[in-house]
Amino acid sequence: MPLPRQPGWRVPARAKVYEPLKVFLRVRPFSIAELESHDAQGCVTIEDAQTVILNAPKESSAMKNSERGIGHAVHSFTFSQVFGPETTQSEFFEGSMKDIVRAYVNGVNGLVFTYGVTNAGKTFTIQGTSKDLGILPRSLDVIFNHISGRHYLKMNFKPYLSNDVKKLEDEQVKQEEALKTAILASLKEETESISTTITNFCDAKLDSSDCTSDNHPSNSLGKACMIVNINQHTSTYDETLHVMKFSAIARQVIQTILPKNFGYFPPKLVGGDGRSLMHFDANTSVGDFADSTETSAEEEVDITILSHEDLLKAAEDLKEKLVAERQSKLLLEVKIRKEMAEAMFRQLLETEEAWRQVILHSALRLEEFHINRLEDMKDSYEEKLESKFEMYKEAIKKHAYMCAMEQIEDHYVPIEEFLAEQEKVEDREGKILQLERQLDEQSRRLLALGSLSSDIPTTENNMERDLTDTTVRRANEGLQKQCEEKEELIKSLKFKIQKLNETLLEANEGYRKMAEENSQLKHTIMLKDQEMNSLQNWAKRVLELEETVSSLQKELEERKKHFFAEESKQQKPRRGLLANLKSTVASTASTPLGKGWGKHEEASPYSRKQVLLPHKAKE
Ligand SMILES: Nc1ncnc2c1ncn2[C@@H]1O[C@H](COP(=O)(O)OP(=O)(O)OP(=O)(O)O)[C@@H](O)[C@H]1O
User: Fold this and answer.
1) How many domains does the chain have?
2) Residues spanned by the domain of 180
3) Which of 186, 203, 242, 500 is least buried, going by the fewest C-beta atoms within 10 A?
4) What are the tens digits of pLDDT across the range 399-437?
5) Is 232 a pocket residue for ligand 1 (Cβ < 6 Å)?
6) What's the gap in Å between 122 CA and the centre of ligand 1?
C-alpha cells in the first residue's frame, strides 16, 4: 500500500544535504511489562536507516480521525538517522555525536537536545546509567581527553558579547565569584525560560539586516542536534505522532533559518587589550576527527567570497523566505488544529445528537407510557363503573321482585273468590235496592193508613201496623248486618292499603339509598375524570419541557460554535512550536557546552521541564 507522504516534511535528497539541525530518532526497546502485553506493540516500523512508519493503533485518536476522513492512519517520517531498539549507548554516541563534538573541539558551539514523550528514553540517552554512559559523559570525556595537558586552570575568563571572552583581574574574579554564588542561590526562583531567550534570539535574527557584523548572534551559531526519543508502545501513539510531526517541521524550519551562508565562526578569547587570546583551529583536532580541517576551510571559503551587499541581499531573501516558511508552517499548524477542532466538534455534535435522540426517545416513551396508563385507568374505571351499575341494577331488580312477591303472597285473592265476592256484593246491593223500594212503598202506605185511621180506628189496622213494623225491623237488621260486613271489608281493605303503602315506602327508601350510591359513584367518576385531566396536563408539560430541552441544546450548539470561533481566533497570534524550537537553538549561543546540561541534581531537571512545559501544554 503506498504510504501517504507529508508534503514538505520530507528532506528531498539525503547524502549531500546541508543539515544545520540534525534530527536523530532513537526508538527504545520494549520494557518487560510492555513485552507481556502483545496488543500494545507494532505501531512503529523502521523501514530503513532514515525512515520510520507509524501505524495508528485502533484506539488512537489518529485512527479515529482517519476513519472520519481526517488525516491518515499510516505516516512515514524521515530523519538524519534512525537508531533502533538494539542500538547500544556507544553506537548511538558514535552515530549521532561525532560531528558535533568534533566541531566543538574545533571551536564551534553546539546544541544537543532531546525531545519525546515521557518515558521515551531521553534521560537514558543523555545521561545514561553508571554502567552504560549516555552522550553527555561520553562527550565530556572526549573533550577533556582532547585538551588533556592544555587545560587553562585559572577561572578568570568571562563571556563577553555572545561569543567573546574577557580576561578578569584577581579582584574582578572575586567579585564574579560572589556574584555567581548569589545567582546560584537565587537560581531556583529564576523562571525565565530558555524558550523566551531563544525566541528573542530568533526575532533579533529575523529583524536584523546586518548579519555580517562580528557581534551578531548568528555568528556564534554552531551545530545543532535534536534527538527524538520514542517508545513503541501503542498507548503513547498519539503523543509520539505529535513529536514526530513537530520534529519534522523543526528540521525543515531550522534548515530554512540556517542556510549554509550562516555557518559558524569560532569563538574568540579576548584579553584586556581586546586581542585574541586563544583560537581552536584545525591544528587542535585529534586524530579521530581527521576531516575537521576540510570542514573549517569550507565554511571559511563560503563566508569570505560573499560581499557585504551579497550578504545583505541574502539576509533579505532569507528573511522573506523565512516569513513565507513561517506562514506556511503556521497555516499548516492552523490547518491541523482546525481539523482536530472540526473532528472534536463533529464528535461533540454526534454525541449531542445521540443524547438528543435518547432524550427524545425517552420523552416519547414516557408520553406513550402515560397515555397508555391513562387509557388503561380509564378503561378499568369504566369497567368498574359498568360492573357496579350492573350489580346495582340486578340488586334493584331483585329487591323489587322480592317486594312484589311478598305483596302478592300477602294480598293474593284467587279470581273465583273475588268473582263470588263480587256476585255476593251485587246480590246484596240488589236486595238493598229491593228493600229500599219496599220500604218506600210501605212508608207511603203507612202515610195513607195514618190519614184513614184518624177517621176509623179498627183492629185490622193495628195488625197491619205490627206486621209492617216487624218487616221494617227485620229489613233494618238485615241492612245493619250488611253494613257491618261492608265495614269489615272496608277495614280489611284499608289495612291492605296501609300495608301496600308501607311496602311502597320501604321500596322508596331502598331506591333513595341506591340513588345516593349512584350519586356517590358519579362523584367518584368525576374525580377520576379530573385526575385524568391533570395527567393529560402533565403530559403536555412534559412536551413543553422537551421543547425547552431542544431550545437549550440549540443554544449550547451556538455557544460551542462561538467557542470554537473564539479559540481559532486566539490560536492565531501564538508563536507555536516553531518559536520554542528557535529559542532552544539560541540557548547555546550564550551557553558553553556542558554548562547546565544533563540532569544535574538541582538545576537541570528544573530547566529541562521548563523546556518541555510548553510542548506538554500543547500536547
Ligand atoms: N535505549 C534504551 N535501552 C534500554 N532501556 C532504555 C532505553 N531507553 C530508555 N530505557 C529505559 O526506559 C525507561 C524510561 O527512560 P527515561 O527515564 O530515560 O525516559 P524519559 O524520556 O527521560 O522520561 P521522562 O520524560 O519521564 O523523564 C528507563 O527505565 C530507561 O532505563
Assistant:
1) 1
2) 21-306+575-614
3) 186
4) 888 888 887 777 777 788 888 888 888 888 898 898 888
5) no
6) 6
